[in-house]
Design goal:
Layout lengths: L1 H7 L26 H9 L4 E2 L6 E2 L20 H4 L13 H6 L1 H24 L11 H25 L5 H30 L4 H4 L1 H11 L4
Helix pairs in contact: 2-5, 5-6, 6-7
Length: 220
């Protein structure tokens, strides 16, 4: 925002008035019909998995909105494609700690709230574009990692009080393993998206694409 003020004279002028694309962001307006399909696509759309490298295929957003909707090919919504974000499902189980630890509550809930607001603003101001996930995905991943650790810290006192070999010890080990697995799946997903996303490395750097493809599909 300081950059905006220095360059354009206002902290709220993000340069949309000067863009040289076919998408005039100054006259899009706010249309409620854009919101539901956009938020679903950003967060909940399913990735399309295929049998050949890079194992992901793009899909176009489906909408019955009667106005103009500018979209890009998507490779799955954030909450569906990145298992680390599934940690947010544990928030109802942590309601007592959330009520007590207001600083941690803010660090977890604020990124979630801002992510939804940013996704709504993105679709209204510009369109439903896959690259806009980078606007809010890093804070969301950070918040999800905090929830995983929060859940583990809530479980730790009970594990210490429990007898050795109890079900709580098993749950703790499963939770730790699940977090590592979620991170690993997220890395693999990002790797596949890097090679699948348009315009695609197959056209930009076919040698790199084919070399990596042969390394990954070593059985061919």
């Amino acid at each position: 925002m300081a950059y905006n003020a220095a360059r354009f004279g206002s902290p709220f002028d993000f340069g949309a008035n000067y863009n040289l694309t076919s998408n005039d962001m100054t006259h899009r307006g706010f249309r409620i019909g854009r919101l539901a399909p956009a938020l679903f696509t950003y967060f909940l759309s399913l990735p399309v998995v295929q049998a050949v490298f890079p194992y992901l295929a793009g899909t176009k957003m489906q909408t019955n909105f009667m106005g103009m909707t500018i979209t890009e090919v998507f490779y799955g919504g954030a909450l569906v494609s990145l298992p680390l974000l599934w940690a947010f499902a544990a928030l109802p189980l942590l309601h007592r700690r959330i009520a007590r630890q207001k600083d941690l509550r803010a660090m977890v809930l604020l990124p979630v709230l801002l992510a939804v607001i940013l996704a709504a603003l993105d679709c209204q101001m510009a369109g439903v574009l896959y690259r806009y996930l980078s606007d809010y995905l890093t804070p969301l991943l950070f918040a999800a990692a905090l929830v995983w650790l929060w859940a583990e810290s809530a479980l730790a006192p009970r594990v210490q009080a429990a007898a050795s070999g109890s079900i709580l010890h098993t749950v703790q080990h499963m939770l730790q393993g699940a977090m590592l697995a979620a991170v690993a799946v997220g890395i693999c997903y990002s790797f596949c998206v890097y090679f699948a996303a348009e315009p695609g490395l197959l056209g930009q750097n076919p040698a790199l694409y084919q070399n990596v493809s042969r390394l990954v599909q070593f059985w061919l």
